[in-house]
TrEMBL record, chain A:
This is Prolyl-tRNA synthetase associated domain-containing protein 1. It comes from the Eukaryota. CDD domains: PrdX_deacylase. The keyword Aminoacyl-tRNA synthetase applies.
TrEMBL record, chain B:
Keywords: Aminoacyl-tRNA synthetase, ATP-binding, Cytoplasm, Ligase, Nucleotide-binding, Protein biosynthesis. This is Tryptophan--tRNA ligase, cytoplasmic. It is found in: Cytoplasm. Its EC number is 6.1.1.2. It comes from Morella rubra (Chinese bayberry).
Amino acid sequence: MGYSKDQLLARLQELQIEFSQYEHPVVMTVEAQAKYVGNTGAGLSKNLFLKDKKNRFYVVSALADAKVDLKVLSQRLGLGKGGLRMAPEEALGEILQVPLGCVTPFALVNDSAGHVSLLLDQGFKGQDRCLFHPLSNDMTISLNVSELDKFLRSIGRDSSYVDLEANPPVGKDNPPDLADLVPSDSIVLSDPPEKAASLQGPRNDHVISDNKSTEITAKANEPSRKVKNIKEKSVSIVQPSSSFKDVGQFVEEILDKTKALLLSETRVIQITGETIKQHGERLGAVVADGIRERLSSELKADTRLYLNTAYTEGFSVARTMFQNTGAHSQFRCL
Amino acid sequence: MDKKEAEVGALQNVEGKQEEEEQVVNPWEVSAKEGGKIDYDKLIEKFGCQRLNQSLIDRVEHLTSRRAHVFLRRGVFFAHRDFTEILDAYERGEKFYLYTGRGPSSEALHLGHLVPFMFTQYLQEVFKVPLVIQLTDDEKCLWKNLTVEESRRLARENAKDIIACGFDIRRTFIFSDFDYVGGAFYRNMIEVSKRVTCNQIVGIFGFVGEDHIGKYSFPPVQAAPSFPSSFPHLFSGKDNLRCLIPCAIDQDPYFRMTRDVAPRIGYHKPALIESLFFPALQGETGKMSASDPNSAIYVTDSEKEIKNKINKYAFSGGQDSVEKHRQLGANLEVDIPVKYLSFFLEDDAELGHVKEEYGAGRMLTGEVKQRLIEVLTKLVERHRRARAAVTDEMVDAFMAVRPLPNMFN
């Protein structure tokens, strides 16, 4: 069963994510939503649920006034022109498990959305706070986008921010810049009349970053199909970590991991009067040692990845400088 | 090749004759005696390598000031040639380099494929030595009838999974045969080729008259990386550098040949440290096969798929009924979940506990499988996460023919 609004809100509180909530009558469009929360000073979002010809799904979440051109987006993802279209209504219920008019990045908390790629509008970063539906149309929550990132990390996702209004050329010499964000797996909805085969997507899993999405207006593309089986993906989808390029994000992830481990470790030891008596002042050390050991190998692996990524960047730069093309003459080495 | 090794080699692969009584272990086929499992003691004896004993493991811990890798502690890497010499030299301050490789025959890697890489990564980390990784795309093109393009593509794809095992890019050179063979490497290949006769090759690998000449000429390609002069951009002037090769024991024939030739060219014999085969889900009678998806856990398997495969296909040593099980306990010798746990469950105490309780019948198969599913899922998730961070550019960087300054620091 999909997460309910209350479950989500409880989860946000557990994660100590800072947000405000606004209740209002059910709204089905951005315009209607704006009537109630448009003057809060926060950036309203529009959210699109899209699919491509190979049954791969995307949530594109953008500032309400951003211009999102699906044709451009489709090309940037490497899907050709016209490769993207609105996902059918059934997919909304089956994959995102939210009602009509309620597409939101938070829907990714559901296991069924495991293969959905998320694209977030870079524009969100420029806002103090942004507005999203928390899995239900009768409420809107407002939070800073870094808090959204925190939530996404907690479900094993990285946040990919994209300049949704950009229109870079895509061609032989310019590979699609968002190709990384195409999911590796397609999702087969039960009984689809069109191409049923789940095709193999490109090998890398990618975080879907922000895409401008327009609110889905409840238009089903195909006549009602009964949803029978979805290729379910449990918990953490692997997203390519941009944290391996970003020091801040890297460190935050380490701290998040440590915190999560601390919380679970203390739960295991059950900090009670007993254990305090047993270990006395050493309780802190005992817990700390346990955490240290658990974290050690994982952090080493992560750091190695960070190192390799940095080295690769240097290598690329050097290669560009010394490639024998016309452009290289502008670079110099002592 | 000394008489004993040649004899052994000949025994191993008598042309065409499938000796039902004997187990078969060579780079292209691994099967146990009918219905049984691989007899590793016999293998060591036949091949003529040594057992890796506890004193060597202790020595490694002492020299590296780190706990030995779980594969050493559990006897996964169980045999060696000249590992003692490597440690002796290391103690004297003489470094060595690591050499391992993969035949990129398929896109799907399973856990068995990861084992040597996981271990090699540990060796690189604790000894702080450089590593060369050979992708034998030419071999797969020759044996598996893949096109050149396809083998090269698979090589690059496999490189990503290999890199995801956590190798240090400052000390690691990955190369594909199709890209790298030539120059000094090729010169060493010729030095090897002229010192191995057709009869010897047939004796070691069992080639027949109908086999194409590509097969005959391939072994020197796998031998050449054992010599530091094959990598002038890395080891120029260091002809005395020793080589240690972590691999599965079915690769031993290549390196028996190499070791025989090495002193005749004036190089150290490469040392080897060899592992058991990772057993297939259905049981110990052979090794995991890329062609049967249910015989193995793949790094691309989802949590659900892992759960399903373990629950459905992992061969259990438990008894048929709960009552019988509580009475007799499980047969740990054939139980696959326990075997897998001994590969991947790091905590010695927990493994010991599981073995005790399960062997006594107090723990049920379901619980053991459940724990295994947790462990494997975590492992696979971690691998996938790391792999997702490997870009094509990173592969280019690992494969660039470049110097590796500080490779010994």
